[in-house]
Design brief:
Length: 206
């Protein structure tokens, strides 16, 4: 027996589908968004993140440094700001024991400085060394002297007891680092940050 079709039911079912479509219901797989173009999702796409201009940030930091330390800026004006020449890669020793020692102490490697950064570091080292006369008698006095010269001294940056006082500071805004040992003969030198980060020489190893 052939099933009989109910015309009224067909009409009602068709009308229901039309009502749903009119209300903005999207049929699965159609790719259309309510009130939008086909293939466009109804959710708003996130705004693109702005590109960070690191070169501009570095230049602004150097400008702030130069304003803070005009004598250093004058001394180093015109020096190249480009990256240092990496030169030939460091070759590990062929002797097994020396090679192992070099590998285990690679964490003490310092970052290379550009000509301008090296100039700034040397200028700051000379500036600090000239101010260490007379030599401060305590760590507190040394911290006070460095702060008065415009350097930021954090906990642990000045250590030891007279006459074996030492300090480590990072040049504000532009780097690099300056490390000093006041034990005669006095040594105040600039250097790049260590591979593991920071101006303090890492104490650990592997």
């Amino acid at each position: 027996m052939i099933p009989r079709t109910n015309p009224a039911g067909v009409v009602l079912f068709t009308a229901g589908l039309l009502a749903l479509t009119a209300c903005g219901t999207t049929v699965a797989g159609s790719g259309a968004a309510p009130g939008g173009s086909p293939g466009v999702s109804g959710a708003a796409s996130p705004a693109a993140s702005p590109t960070v201009d690191y070169a501009a940030q570095a230049a602004a930091a150097v400008a702030r440094h130069d304003k803070r330390f005009p004598e250093v800026a004058t001394r180093c004006a015109g020096r190249s700001t480009g990256a240092p020449d990496p030169g030939a890669p460091d070759a590990l020793p062929t002797d097994p024991e020396a090679r192992k020692y070099a590998e285990n102490h690679a964490f003490k490697k310092q970052a290379e400085l550009s000509p301008q950064a090296a100039c700034r570091g040397d200028a700051h080292a000379a500036r600090i060394k000239a101010a260490l006369t007379p030599v401060p008698g305590t760590a507190a006095k040394l911290s006070e002297l460095l702060t008065g010269l415009g350097y930021e001294v954090a906990a642990g940056d000045v250590y030891g007891t007279a006459p074996n006082l030492s300090f480590v500071v990072s040049i504000p805004e532009s780097g690099p680092c300056v490390t000093g040992h006041l034990t005669p003969p006095m040594s105040v030198k600039a250097h790049g940050s260590y591979v593991e980060g920071g101006c303090h020489e890492p104490r650990g190893g592997h």
